Amino acid sequence: MTEASPSPEPQARPFRRMADRFRGYLPVVVDVETGGFDWNRHALLELAAIPIEIDEDGKLVPGEVACAHFEPAPGTEIDPKSLEVTGIVLDHPFRMAKPEREALDHVFAAVRAAVKRHECQRAILVGHNAHFDLNFLNAAVARVQHKRNPFHPFSVFDTVTLAGVAYGQTVLARAVQAAGFEWRSEDAHSAVYDAERTAEVFCKIANAWQQP
């Protein structure tokens, strides 16, 4: 009696629909720049959001960024040390900051459109130290009593964890470089730049895992 040959390992196949990839959630990479570290007290100053798209080969790729500069909300504070780090000049004539409600509307409209396009249920925030971004976002939503927040209220995908597992790196700059991308320190601490680099890292790691 001959021993049966082992069956071949199943070949991974790519997902074709974003709605099938993350249990109906659309990953949206978010980065915020703020007036300090306390989301209950300090102002939200910048918000960038990048919906993750899926290409014809089933690979995840960063989508188009939606961003806004915020006027400090009434009652919030600014720690001058935070402005030294971010380089934000609040009264710069080209900053074109919007009131908090208007700025949220601008970004949320783009996110909701992406959720609908991919037939997902809602967005899930992807960030580097993601709960920091989510807490500031949720605080702004609460201040203006926004009723159409497209993001899950507490679940996130955190690239600190993902990069720590994949590359042994938890600092964003080092994770970006370990993933094979360029990091320019002079452009860091901009919501758009940090979100773009975080999106690259997320897609690189997520694309290594396909449907079994």
Task: Explain the overall architecture.
This protein is an alpha/beta fold and 212 residues long. A hairpin with a 5-residue loop joins strand 2 (44-54) and strand 3. Helix 5 packs across helix 7 (191-206). It is built from seven helices and six strands. It has helices at residues 18-21, 80-86, 100-117, 130-144, 159-167, 172-178, 191-206; strands at residues 25-34, 44-54, 60-62, 66-69, 122-127, 151-158. Strands 1, 2, 3, 4, 5 and 6 form a six-stranded mixed beta sheet that branches.
Total strands: the figure is 6
Number of helices: 7
Rounded radius of gyration (Å): 19 Å
Q: Overall mean pLDDT score?
A: 92
Low-pLDDT windows of residues? 1-11
N- to C-terminal distance: 33 Å
Beta-strand share of residues: 15-25%
Structural class: alpha/beta
**Pattern of helices and strands:** HEEEEHHEHEHHH
Helix content: 25-40%
Shape: globular
List keywords for this structure.
about 210 residues, alpha/beta, 6-stranded mixed sheet, globular, disordered N terminus
